[in-house]
């Protein structure tokens, strides 16, 4: 190849990458930089969120609740019902909290909505971010505190909500998989994306489902965004739970662990069981799929052509501690406890953590 054509090729490559890489300009604060000047105003809000909502940057109960809130706001959106089917990720769950927090599927969100409202007004956020922006921003910042999580995107510019979302759009743990998959399809998500979004239950506990299990985590590591949720959900019940199961709950063999009926069914449904299993011992695959599905969820019902990509304000998440980099069976469990649901591929080979069988403690609130 003559030298001339090499020069042309490399010039083309440079031009393309320059177009793809947006240049960051310094912010007036002299500390940060941003690809769009409007993003600069978010840095102090992010700091305020970390200090006042998340205890200085923990993956704590408020982070879990804030992530749940991103979903319960956004899923108020229906393709089939048109504009009257909710505004999606528009902050209506905060702006119209008197209405939406009465919906039974929104039980347990009162405290976090109040805390976020206060945080929004105290951090100078009013006028900079709408309630819809704030909910997604807090969720993305919060998730970044959980080791193993992907760095979620954040787009700025959701208008104020104009109406509450209708009731019955948020899925319930008592719903069948048919009902849940249809509800998600009506919001624009396929079944693989449903499974990906459920990685959120890796950093979760229950507050209201069973009054005698307040704080019960969904997996043994609720402070880590890891794949344990996908393993533990498939373990066969041993029937030693001490409390009566509530409607929407099924038995977990791990004492103190919450297992909701819908997760248990989705893990075993032939439409989703292989995607479910594919996340086990594949942290990168799970985190990536979750990040992509969350990017969609966070802008449901919004016109993204009018929004500004401020993803650079989201902190870089910590990676998982090395001792948690592989999926494991909790102490006392092995492959014999797995209720194999995916028929296409065998269950991954995992080792068992040493030590006695112990109950999992509740998440401190
Ligand atoms: C199939 C659809 C889903 C159902 C039926 C469902 C149901 C539930 C239930 C029943 C709880 C416990 C509530 C309580 O007792 O306090 C819960 C907690 C939670 N959910 Fe979901 N969920 C679904 C999907 C999602 C999605 C898509 C996300 C986020 C992307 C999410 C994030 C969370 C989080 C983070 C918690 C824990 C909240 C905390 O620790 O306070 N869920 N979910
Ligand atoms: C949106 O609502 C907030 C109160 O939540 C208000 O301060 C703000 O002015 C409203 N913005 C617009 C553009 O109406």
UniProtKB/TrEMBL annotation:
Coiled coil location: none
Ligand binding (heme b): 201
Pfam families associated with the record: peroxidase (PF00141), Peroxidase_ext (PF11895)
GO BP annotations, alphabetical order: cellular response to oxidative stress; hydrogen peroxide catabolic process; response to reactive oxygen species
PROSITE patterns (alphabetical): PEROXIDASE_1, PEROXIDASE_2, PEROXIDASE_4
Top-level lineage group: Eukaryota
Endpoints of the signal sequence: 1-18
GO molecular function ontology, one term from the record: peroxidase activity
Plant heme peroxidase family profile domain location: 67-346
Classification via Gene3D superfamilies: 1.10.520.10, Peroxidase, domain 2
Active site, per annotation: 72 (proton acceptor)
E.C. no: 1.11.1.-
Keywords associated with the record: Calcium, Disulfide bond, Glycoprotein, Heme, Iron, Metal-binding, Oxidoreductase, Peroxidase, Signal
Binding site for Ca(2+) 2: 202, 219, 221, 226
InterPro entries: Ccp1-like (IPR044831), Haem_peroxidase (IPR002016), Haem_peroxidase_sf (IPR010255), Ligninase (IPR001621), Ligninase_C (IPR024589), Peroxidases_AS (IPR019794), Peroxidases_heam-ligand_BS (IPR019793)
Disulfide bond residue pairs: 27-40, 39-310, 59-146, 274-342
Cofactor-binding details, from the entry: Binds 2 calcium ions per subunit. Binds 1 heme b (iron(II)-protoporphyrin IX) group per subunit.
Amino acids binding Ca(2+) 1: 73, 88, 90, 92
Transmembrane segments: none
CC cofactor: Ca(2+); heme b
Site (Transition state stabilizer): 68
Enzyme class (EC, first level): oxidoreductase
Family recorded in the similarity comment: Belongs to the peroxidase family. Ligninase subfamily.
Protein name: Peroxidase
């Amino acid at each position: 190849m003559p030298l001339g054509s090499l020069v042309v090729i490399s010039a083309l490559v440079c031009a393309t990458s320059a177009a793809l890489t947006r240049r960051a300009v310094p912010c007036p604060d002299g500390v940060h930089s941003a690809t769009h000047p409007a993003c600069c105003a978010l840095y102090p809000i992010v700091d305020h969120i970390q200090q006042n909502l998340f205890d200085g940057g923990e993956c704590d109960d408020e982070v879990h609740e804030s992530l749940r809130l991103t979903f319960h706001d956004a899923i108020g959106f229906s393709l089939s019902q048109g504009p009257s089917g909710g505004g999606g990720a528009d902050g209506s769950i905060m702006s119209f909290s008197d209405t939406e927090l009465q919906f039974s599927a929104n039980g347990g969100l009162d405290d976090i909505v109040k805390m976020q409202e206060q945080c929004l007004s105290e951090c100078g956020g009013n006028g900079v971010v709408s309630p819809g922006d704030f909910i997604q921003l807090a969720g993305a910042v919060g998730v970044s505190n959980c080791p193993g999580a992907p760095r979620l995107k954040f787009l700025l510019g959701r208008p104020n909500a104009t109406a509450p979302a209708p009731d019955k759009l948020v899925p319930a743990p008592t719903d069948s998989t048919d009902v849940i998959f249809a509800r998600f399809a009506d919001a624009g998500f396929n079944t693989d994306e449903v499974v990906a979004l459920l990685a959120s239950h890796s950093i979760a506990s229950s507050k209201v489902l069973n009054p005698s299990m307040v704080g019960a985590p969904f997996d043994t590591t609720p402070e880590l965004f890891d794949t344990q949720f996908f393993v533990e959900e498939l373990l066969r019940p041993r029937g030693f739970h001490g409390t009566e199961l509530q409607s929407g709950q099924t038995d977990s063999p791990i004492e103190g662990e919450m297992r909701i009926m819908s997760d248990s069914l989705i893990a075993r449904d032939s439409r989703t069981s292989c995607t479910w299993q594919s996340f086990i011992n594949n942290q990168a695959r799970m985190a990536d799929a979750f990040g992509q599905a969350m990017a969609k969820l966070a802008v449901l019902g919004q016109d993204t052509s009018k929004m500004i990509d401020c993803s650079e304000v989201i902190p870089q998440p910590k990676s998982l501690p090395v001792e948690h980099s592989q999926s494991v069976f909790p102490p006392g469990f092995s492959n014999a406890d797995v209720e194999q649901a995916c028929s296409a591929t065998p269950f991954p080979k995992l080792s068992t953590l040493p030590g006695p069988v112990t109950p999992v403690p509740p998440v401190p609130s």
